[in-house]
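Researcher: Quick sanity check before group meeting.
Model: Go ahead. Protein one:
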Amino acid sequence: MKFKKTIIAAVLLLAAGGAGYAYWTMNAAPKEPPYLTAPVSRGNVRQVVSSTGTLQAVVTVQVGTQVSGTIEKLNADFNSKVKAGQVVAQLNQDKFKASVDQAKANVLSAQATHARNKVTAADTLRTLERNRELRKRDVMAQSELDASQTAYDAAMAQLQVSQAQISQAQAALNQTTVDLNNTVIKSPVDGLVISRNVDVGQTVAASLSAPTLFSIANDLTRMEVHTNVDEADVGNIREGQDVTFTVDAHAQRRFRGKVHQVRNAPQVVQSVVTYIAVVRINNKELLLKPGMTANVQFLVAQKEDTLTIPNIALRFRPSEEKDAAQDLLKQEQQRVGGRISQRRTSRGGGSGTGGGEGRRVRDVKVYVLKDGKAQPLDVKVGITDGSKTEVVEGPLDENAKVIIGLGSTGTQAQGGVTNPFQAQPPRFR
């Protein structure tokens, strides 16, 4: 019995000693600062303006008809390759041939009338000359001579009328011949038929405007992207600028092009102003098709092998400074009356990565750990790609740790800050 009590006492003593040692160890260990940090790294930064646009051929010709009628033949279909001057369709010609025959008959009739009037004019001329001789001999009254003169003048006038009628009939014949020729529809360019809008037996009416029968792309190996650029970003777009874009049909490929034109005509939709930028691209593989939606990125600026910090480090503020900043922000929002938020709501279209401030060198404040406390540092930063920003000047070296947030364990973000949900970038062509 005494031995058992001794064992129990020893166990209790060991347990108490272990608990005391653990308590002493926990209190003696230095506490890690409750901050999340990320290293300053060296890499490349690409600032872009993002937008969307539509692919189309450089030259697309709408082939129509200038006369109304019924489609009798179709010699081209979707994806048909055609040459300039090739017949692609034909209207029924029966009515037009009849009109040509009628016009020819009218010309012959006018010519016959003119010939008759020439005979009449010649006869009245002979009568007039004979009556003049008789008048000189004083064997004819002056009134009879005047009558013959009037008859001659009328015959000559009628001769001119018949000559004009011949010209009129000939013009009508030319018009009906042109209409007959227009029943044969020819391709004006070499190219590929993108769309066919009619079928055999369909009636087309050209009373107000020429109906479109075919759309023919001149050359699909060279294409354009027409994209709407927001007015806030159009100042960063210029001719010759490098552009990359993707399409949903080939999501893992990134295509390249150059800005061909920035049009000055504004596009205004619900008070949102955009400008059309035309991007020329090479499509030798014919992977791109007209009408595809392109997700475009205009390369505004690029820096290689430069110091960078995560953008989240630019937004971090200690709790005491954050409270003061929030108070100032509330006062500013009340002063401007919400105009900033209203502008953001009304604006659409493309946007530049990093916003307007990312396009110039600016002074910012970041925080580093010093003696377990957040120490502010003033640095100058440049362009940004939306996740990291270039460090232009400041007391930061590569692999230095900047604070990016608060944490309970002081865990450091190794190798920079990444988004686990961010899609992998597509490979370049």
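Researcher: Fine. The other one?
Model: Protein two, sequence then structure:
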Amino acid sequence: MIREVESTSPSLLSADNTLERSFFIRMKSTLTKRGVHIKSSGYKVIHITGRLRIRMALTHSRSVPNQIMGMVVVAHALPPPTINEVRIDCQMFVTRVNMDLNIVYCENRISDYMDLAPVDIVGKRCYHFIHAEDVEGIRQSHLDSLQRNGTAV
């Protein structure tokens, strides 16, 4: 990434290529977990977002191209996945949804519990299946989530 930053000149950037950058890195962590006296060496995924900083040329006599001085970023360590496996009772079925709550997969077992087949729900959003009496509760859950800065409810 450093080579890309050094070789990218703002004067050569096209209109659709901004100075903003976002990328993920994986770093080795040797921190001790709280309350445990055993060091756990593993890797953490860090999400880095920021902007390239440019040095403005203040020369009036000639045109000097701007130079990239560095990058100002904010880094967030992503939490490790905590649930590797979930036990499914005999009355349950598995669905997978995207971040926009669009259903992308459904097990055939849905037909055992509902009058639907997987082809009936794949491609639809979860909101399609909300009962009218549940709308207010779901609206309140969305508001609570937004007030908590998007954390899970």
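Researcher: One line on it for the slide.
Model: The first strand starts at residue 20 and ends at 29.
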